[in-house]
């Protein structure tokens, strides 16, 4: 046996060798069989017990459970005429990637380039439920657990969407035939938002939508199979991806872009910054850019995946945000959540650390890992330690306006894309699958909520409303709760 193969000596966290990791120092009387009194001086026992309840860090509020892997992105097509971002500078260039694919269809990538990390934080659905960022906590709450009973509640879910109907397009995607992927190898990665790709050196840019399409194709589970797996093998998706990589069946995706000239955005029929809408491929076709390959499982899930932090604000020269309000809100919220969940120095952990960084104006804080920049000055424009300037950002847009409170209204144009999707469902004979999935969930809501939901779908197409109503009549009401949540009495001082 080589020296490196010898069993290591077990120690405490500070390095003290221990004879028996299962023992405790106790006072035992001669007449007490198996009993005794523990000592606070028993460092091993105290350390072991104290560490155990601190093993968990706060879970992600939305995408709590996920699979993850390492891999690479390879540029396969030349876009250097209009974008100089590091991953796309030459055909054949490979960039290290950390991926996290959540079980609620989140699709997050961290590309480690020579000019910093670029985080792509997308979803399996091409659109989202809302476009006003202040609604996001309420959206999340309505999709989660009832505050009194702590179980999922369809009445809350549909009551929210009945009163925030801009989400109809996303709901059709969610309850359509592609709602539950067969495996994580079959998940789409949609960027959802509009981004700017450009050349900081001359200030030019294009608007883009980002797509990662699975090379294994789009494959979905039926509602029945999904329910069966949820009960028999709730870790099915995570296990499947791990085993695929272990046997060399690497998941791969092709990256595509939809590209729009900024001048076209001013006259396009829809608001290109509205996350509830797509850019139809017939208007802006998919342009292939590169290949994503996941080929290495993490050595330790907590170390590489649970502590990983992704944010749409993590950008590199050549990639910039657009005027999308939801994107701007996420650019604040995601790193803020990481500071709470992992700690203020989360960027120094190996999974999050860029290939190269020099940021001496962010110092100290809990769990500092990088030497804290030694004696380098911790203030800007020091005469004692000069720093070089990096490239400028992609050009900013010019804005003239006034500051005001704003929340979007649902208008007639918000029903156009859902109507188009309904026609696609019918042309592909997928309308019955959609209605079966939809009615099965709406049936769990209270009768008054069901009625409002039926009325909402009439805005897309009267046929959806009528067929949904017919299906609900045939189903026995399987309500998540027998009555609406009780209302709290409003104090007299709060009444108007």
UniProtKB/TrEMBL annotation:
Q: Where is the Catalase core domain?
A: 11-388
An MF annotation (GO) of this entry: metal ion binding
Q: Which InterPro entries match?
A: Catalase, Catalase_AS, Catalase_clade1/3, Catalase_core, Catalase_immune_responsive, Catalase_sf
What are the annotated GO cellular component locations? mitochondrion; peroxisome
Q: Name one GO biological process term.
A: response to hydrogen peroxide
Domain of life from the UniProt record:
Eukaryota
What's one Pfam family the UniProt record gives for this protein? Catalase
Locate the region Disordered: 475-496
Here the segments flagged for biased composition (Polar residues) are: 485-496
What UniProt keywords are attached to this protein's entry?
Answer: Heme, Hydrogen peroxide, Iron, Metal-binding, Oxidoreductase, Peroxidase
Binding of heme occurs at 334
Query: Which residues does the entry assign to the active site, renumbered to this chain?
Result: 63, 123
Q: Which residues form a coiled coil?
A: none
Q: Which cofactor does it need?
A: heme
Q: Which family does it belong to?
A: Belongs to the catalase family.
Q: What is this protein called?
A: Catalase isozyme P
**Lineage of the source organism?**
Eukaryota, Fungi, Dikarya, Ascomycota, Pezizomycotina
